[in-house]
Amino acid sequence: MRRIKDPAIMQRLALRWRSRGVRIGFVPTMGYLHAGHLSLVARARQAVGSRGRVVVSIYVNPTQFGPAEDLSRYPRDPKRDLALCRDAGTDVVFMPEDATMYSGRETGRYSTYVVEESLTRSMEGVTRPTHFRGVTTIVAKLFNLVQPNVAVFGEKDWQQATVVGRMVQDLNIPLQLVVAPTVREPDGLAMSSRNKYLDPVRRAQAVVLWRSLNHVRSRVGSSRSGRVSSAVLTREVASMISKEPDARMDYVEFFEPSTLAPQPWVMRGTRMALAVLVGPTRLIDNGLI
Ligand code: AMP
User: Fold this and answer.
1) How confident is the model at residue 67 (pLDDT cuts 50, 70, 90)?
2) Residue 27 — φ and ψ, nearest 5°?
3) Ligand 1 pocket: which of 29, 84, 132, 179 to mutate (most atoms <8 Å of CB)?
4) Which of 115, 211, 263, 287 is the most buried (most CB within 10 A)?
5) Which of 34, 37, 131, 215 does the annotation list as catalytic?
6) What is the pTM of this model?
7) In sequence order, which residues have a C-beta less than 8 Å from that of residue 256 and are 6 or more positions away?
């Protein structure tokens, strides 16, 4: 396994592979890897085969964090990440630095961003207004550096995967996007690097996101008409969350999975997403109803 820091070296290697017909699978991450990330690495390998190359990027991208968010505290453990990537059969770990990815950003000599103007208006985009501009920008840059045939994203961040899919389509980026299922802890909590912030008491309360998803699934499953109003379900989910002493609901939304359009009635095939603050830690989850 090779570790590359320099974007120019990464791009040169990727272009050499592509010119020889070698397929490239790519998994972008912010590190502090867990089994969810590793499932994406396995999916990338499956997509490019044993003769292809799998690249994992580890980069805590500053432009997707708001000024009051956890950029400086974001958990990091590069040594462990490298060992996990090696064991998962990664060919290259790309670990760039701010100085090379956003050279001149402080002095105004970095000034190009990619903005998706529709799908980013709801959910995460409301609470985190500059978040997706950072995501689409870094993902576009990484695509240019890694030259993937296949890029794998997690369903865990459904809105992000949908926004990236729209960018790929709108900007004619020549790659296939794969969205892989959410990997969960045994009690249902979606794996996330941010789970590290939770003390045992809050860790137990965090399962309310998973319980909320299942509550809605069983309400819709057992309703005679096969549909329940979003307003009613929103109230029920809010009430479940409010029973956890340290939990505060940011949003719950019911939407059409590919357009993210809010749905007044929830039925099979509707998707639900929610964001909950557990103490200071903001957690998100989503699932198909
Ligand atoms: P992050 O390091 O949190 O930016 O995530 C990197 C990629 O891993 C994104 O495509 C996420 O959607 C995906 N991911 C994060 N958590 C999970 C999970 N529990 N299961 C599957 N994929 C995940």
Assistant:
1) very high
2) -125, 105
3) 29
4) 287
5) 37
6) 0.97
7) 263, 270, 271
